[in-house]
Amino acid sequence: MHTTEPFTTDQPLLARLPVAAGAVRLRALRTDDVDDFLAYRSDPEVARYQGWQPMDRDSALVFLHDAAPSPWRLGDWAQIGIARAEDDRLLGDIGLLREGPAQVQLGFSLARSAQGRGWAHTAVRACIDRLLVPLGMTRLRGITDVRNAASLRLLSRLGFLHASREDVVFRGETCTEVTLERCL
Ligand SMILES: CC(C)(COP(=O)(O)OP(=O)(O)OC[C@H]1O[C@@H](n2cnc3c(N)ncnc32)[C@H](O)[C@@H]1OP(=O)(O)O)[C@@H](O)C(=O)NCCC(=O)NCCS
Predict the structure, then answer these.
(1) Fewer C-beta neighbours within 10 Å, C or N terminus of the chain?
(2) CATH code for the domain in which residue 73 is found
(3) What is the residue-averaged pLDDT of the chain?
(4) Is 61 a residue whose pLDDT tops 80?
């Protein structure tokens, strides 16, 4: 049984960081992550299915500084970092959109060099178990392009189930978005 608490603290996610999770750790994003952050966010393979706008260094510094808004209101994205445990270098991030009092949409990105090792799975599972469950979240959603096989596999391994699919226009191209959900 999990202990829950009201979702009212100003920085409910940051207050629980860092979280150790095997080869990775979850921690707050920092402005000194800017080079690693820009490196993976600028990789076309990592950005392919993401709705990001291209970011210059100054925008990235602002983004990193404001990554976890306080308070975390409905409609706000909060981003937390995935760092390599051995040297704390930033490998990726997890985005958490507060969609309702107990509902969060998750997104995740990992540098290509860190993929294929189970590290995204370890990081997102720790985020769910150690951050979202204790905060009383009961409904999680992931939305991904149907062609994004790695993302679908990850969500499925985390226990998310297909809920719906929708044809959308993304970057001028018609594609299908799949929504997966997990109830806690
Ligand atoms: C989505 C994304 C984070 C998944 O990363 P990932 O590294 O493939 O995910 P996992 O951590 O679950 O790793 C799984 C892979 O590691 C392999 N692996 C190797 N060692 C492993 C281990 N010890 N434990 C678990 N898996 C291991 C698995 O076999 C699996 O490979 P496969 O997918 O070829 O079968 C990554 O593809 C990414 O950043 N994509 C770009 C951004 C994006 O599109 N995000 C989703 C939109 S929200």
Answers:
(1) N
(2) 3.40.630.30
(3) 93
(4) yes
